Sequence to fold (413 residues):
Amino acid sequence: MSKALEGVRILDMTHVQSGPTCTQLLAWFGADVIKVERAGVGDATRGQLRDIPDVDSLYFTMLNHNKRSITLDTKNEKGKEVFERLLRCCDVLVENFAPGALDRMGFPWEKIHEINPGIIYASVKGFGKGPYQDCKVYENVAQCTGGSASTTGFDDGPPTVTGAQIGDTGTGLHLAIGILAALVHRQSTGLGQRVECAMQDGVMNLCRVKFRDQQRLQHGPLTEYPQYPNGEFGSSVPRSGNASGGGQPGWAVKTKPGGPNDYVYVIIQPPGWAHLMRVIGREELIDDPEWSTPQVRLPKLDQCFAMIEEWTKTKTKFEVMETLNPLNVPCGPILSIEELINEEALMKTGTVVEVDHPERGKYRTVGNPIKLSNSPTEVIRSPLLGEHTDEVLTDVLGYNESEIETLREAGAV
Ligand code: CAO
Fold:
């Protein structure tokens, strides 16, 4: 079975998390991803947060599956020649260096476009053009500068970053979408183009509903936020705790036996109201004019969820799920990472995968969350540093043995 992106070759100059997320996804779809790393050093994450001495970290292995690794010094004169050859035979260049790094290597976009007019040049940067364009940026900086931190957490607590890596992984996914669009565009024009996604912009896109609420705020309080009706609204969208971001109220309520993740998120929709009240033993509220419509419930959502919690506290989160789901009451148990990584159904779909690595042995990872019916993903272990240098130099770039030796002697590879 052929893969969706078979025949597409990616020159992968990415490191850490945002860029590697993008190229890993493209590799899962079948692209030939050649990761360029500095000899002896490699992607810094190979050595970060190591759990086993001298073995590539899980941080690295889990973001670099299905890639080939070559070591190349792109600042070395001979290395630049190899880099140029790579540019000629690749469809896409992806990088997430600090701003201007490729220009400093001697490869601005104009030169890259001249070398290969068909190549797509895709970058992640912290910020777009503006006062912060030269700044280096990591995940939490993006969460803070993209509107997420100011709207996450509880009203009486500090701005809070979220565990989901919306700055890094989120921007990597945005970039992958841009690359795919540019590949389609190239089919009719023959030309590559620049694809850029700033982490601040990617986070803002994921915070779209908060920009909706900012403008609603000019017309009155945000009635679905926990600050309504008794709290204060300032001039900016406040932190909304566990309130639902949509039009239906929701909250995380406690369940049995009371551990840190024994909670279930329950959403109250008008069609589920009667079922919910019956289940929790408050049938008298079904038609009570003080409770029966969303409008009258809004000012007392805290009481609503307190009543529901009285019932959920007597069940496990899974029992609540089993009871409420058939009644069309949307709910979701708070699942811990431990529960998810051991979930058999997720292993069957390939969303959780076990991978064997020659140096670290078996480990589990999150596989490709996007399933293509004619292009299933096979998760292949990440490459060791420079594992494919000779293979790529020979098979892709056409160097012979003595030429490779010369490159080695010059310190290029
Ligand atoms: N050969 C020769 N030189 C190489 C090389 C190679 N194969 N690969 C990298 N280098 C050089 C770069 O050219 C750069 O040199 P200059 O400083 O002289 O231009 C240098 O190595 C370091 O690159 P860097 O500045 O990108 O790395 P850093 O560790 O200092 O910064 C990061 C890391 C992530 C903050 C920065 O790359 C960045 O802001 N990237 C854009 C935003 C981003 O993706 N952030 C998310 C990272 S995931 O949390």
Q: What stands out?
A: The mean pLDDT is 96. Residues 9-205+343-409 form a domain with the Rossmann fold fold (CATH 3.40.50.10540).
